[in-house]
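Task: sequence design from structure.
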């Protein structure tokens, strides 16, 4: 397992969180190097043994570090502590981008966030195949670590890439996004796997915005990416302009997700989404 030192944020739970994502990533990479089968859940979304084992490992370690915290994961739902509950909720996507994992594109990540009193406090997105960690805590910025570049603070650029660029999915075509991109005169698009890696592509000025009109997005898809993206200076809401809820029982986001590099672009997207949704 790689070790990551000199964490640049002072949030007391950041070192434990980094340890948890790295140990989940080790399990995922082991399975990625072997043969694995794919099953389909009730909502027809694919799931592999890697999603399940990563989910179990993350719950196990979070329970060891934080025995009174609640945990909400994609594969286990809401896990309530047996001792007195705290006002803290860990929100876990054990693999964001399972289809990318199955297709072996390398573009998947582990996403974990901590919400305190339903407000995001800490988050991490880790891409195992590139050993790249994105870490943020409230008011302490969004940071990227990779073995090649050590820690680097990310800032969303308010000026566009040479041409307005939309981050898109390889698996979930979004016709609304394509339509809005055309209406805004956009010419370029890049594909990245999962929500976190798309938002981090915007934070690195490889794209300017992302539009997802799925009514199936959940708290674990958005939580860690949201705190990272906001700390980098980006704007993220649902397609109606509302903030996401991180109440433990209200984890379904029914109105999609829009993430933009600037307020001006975000407002334009929301207006067009109102007309064309
Ligand atoms: C997303 C994630 C996620 C899902 C989103 C997708 P992808 O990334 O996989 O689990 O709920 O709606 O868009 O596959 O589009 O790159
Ligand atoms: Ca996901
Ligand atoms: Ca997942």
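Answer:
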């Amino acid at each position: 397992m790689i070790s990551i030192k000199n964490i640049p944020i002072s949030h007391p739970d950041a070192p434990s969180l980094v340890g948890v994502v790295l140990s989940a990533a080790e399990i995922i990479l082991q399975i990625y190097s072997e043969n694995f089968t794919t099953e389909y859940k009730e909502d027809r979304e694919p799931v592999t043994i890697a999603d399940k084992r990563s989910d179990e490992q993350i719950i196990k370690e979070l329970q060891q570090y934080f025995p009174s915290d609640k945990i909400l994961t994609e594969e286990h739902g809401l896990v309530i502590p047996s001792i007195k509950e705290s006002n803290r909720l860990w929100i876990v996507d054990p693999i964001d981008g399972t289809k990318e994992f199955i297709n072996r594109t390398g573009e998947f990540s582990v996403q974990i966030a901590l919400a305190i009193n339903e407000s995001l406090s800490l988050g991490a997105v880790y891409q195992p195949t590139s050993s790249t960690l994105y870490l943020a805590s409230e008011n302490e910025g969004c940071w990227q670590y990779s073995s090649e570049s050590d820690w680097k603070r990310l800032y969303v650029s308010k000026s566009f890439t040479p041409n307005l660029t939309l981050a898109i999915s390889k698996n979930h075509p979004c016709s609304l996004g394509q339509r809005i991109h055309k209406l805004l005169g956009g010419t370029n698009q890049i594909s990245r796997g999962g929500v976190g890696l798309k938002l981090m592509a915007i934070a690195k000025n490889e794209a300017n915005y992302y539009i997802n009109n799925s009514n199936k997005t959940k708290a674990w898809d958005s939580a860690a990416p949201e705190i990272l993206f906001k700390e980098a200076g980006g704007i993220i809401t649902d397609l109606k302009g509302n903030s996401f809820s991180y109440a433990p029982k209200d984890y379904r986001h029914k109105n999609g997700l829009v993430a933009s590099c600037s307020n001006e672009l975000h407002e334009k997207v929301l207006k067009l989404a109102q007309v064309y949704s």
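The chain has a mean pLDDT of 96.
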